Structure prediction request, 212 residues.
Amino acid sequence: MIIQKSNEHSEKKQPNQRDWPTINNLLNIQINSIEQISEFELDIIEISQEIHQFIYFICDNIVGRQEIVTQTFYAFLTGEHQLLIGRTGMAKSLLARQIFECFDGAKVFEKHLTKDTTPDNLFGAYDMVKMKHGKMIHNIQGSIVTADFAFLDEIFDANDMLLRSLLSLLNERKLVNGEQIVDSSLHTVIAVSNYIRASETLEALLDRFIYR
Prediction:
């Protein structure tokens, strides 16, 4: 069972936040000289130290989940997605939100999924003007498409049609909705559930979550 520590411990000073795109850009840096190699190595060491500080900070608030927290940071660093499955009361939501707070300036999309959740709840409301002309186009502003990170709570409560619509977004970082094809800035999704169910769509969905 995961418990949150008392306020005395949870008020422990949080490490300085780092703008998350800086980390991502650093991993793609081109090294052209010995001086750049030295600078690159120093930056990697600094980032590694900061990541460990965040891991220790989060694990100090959520007990017994260091392995999961570390795995989550692996997902962020590799640009992959993570699926957490566990019974109610395991603080899965708290864990995800605390990790998101480590990345200053990142846009986070959160949604609790149910059997009644529809594509416009994730990808944005339909454009009414274009709908009058027979086109179903999402207004993606503020949706999961334009987010950096996303938290999908109770993902397996969603119907298979909705989960199928997520496949290209998770794998190719593209919203594919008929003639509407939009590149997404989505970096990593953390999805959680209290259970797992079996279906053909879910098998494809699980393939999108490298870390689980």
